[in-house]
Specification:
The chain has 195 residues and is mainly alpha-helical. The protein has eight helices and no strands. It has a single domain, classed as Arp2/3 complex 21 kDa subunit ARPC3. Helix content is 74%, strand content 0%. 26% of the residues are buried.
Length: 195
């Protein structure tokens, strides 16, 4: 199942230049909610992966209601501010390196005619993003405790985490599709049709 950023259901309410103030208000509200989720990663330990993932999915609302470009701008704003306000720098890295932009990029990848090529690209992006993100975190920001937390059997732990990460990524991708479908086909017509 795929989704498309053109959203052929009903035209979004905020498209067009006359609604700039509404676009800015929605973008600011979603950015503030994303930053709140990123801040909560320091309060709830299990939020390391969950909150950046949910923050990224929130950006889809901007892509649907306004445009993918506006969603990219909101992502950029949250990406710039999250390292400053997020107590857990690993969570900020996860949002910046993958979870923040992937839900927006997903629509472009799903326009491919070949499902095999689509999934190959998705998995390649996921793996390269996490590799690059952790390299930046460890070597550029000198967060050596990430490596130290793996212990003596680091290679085995990394291989296991990498394998499980790819499985979780596939589940995450399918979950995003279902959430977007629910938003477009149920939530939006039921609750936002008045606006």
């Amino acid at each position: 199942m795929m989704y498309d950023m053109s959203y052929e259901t009903t035209p979004p309410n905020l498209r067009g230049p006359k609604h700039v103030s509404l676009k800015v208000a929605l973008g600011g509200s979603v950015a503030a909610l994303c930053l709140l989720l990123m801040f909560m990663t320091g309060l709830i330990p299990l939020g390391l992966f969950t909150f950046p993932a949910v923050a990224g999915v929130l950006l889809v609302v901007i892509a649907i209601e306004i445009s993918p470009r506006w969603a990219a701008l909101v992502y950029a704003a949250v990406a710039l501010l999250s390292p400053v306000i997020t107590p857990d720098k690993e969570a900020a890295m996860l949002f910046i390196a993958f979870f923040g932009y992937y839900p927006i990029l997903k629509a472009l990848l799903e326009r491919m005619k070949s499902r095999v090529l689509e999934w190959a690209c998705k998995l390649l992006i996921f793996n390269l993003s996490f590799l690059a993100g952790y390299c930046v975190l460890i070597f550029l920001f000198n967060q050596k405790e990430v490596l130290e937390s793996l212990g003596n059997s680091g290679t085995l732990v990394v291989a296991g985490m990498w394998f499980l990460g790819n499985i979780v990524f596939v589940i995450y991708d399918l979950a995003i599709t279902r959430l977007i479908s629910a938003y477009v086909h149920w939530f939006r017509p039921k609750f936002l049709r008045r606006f």
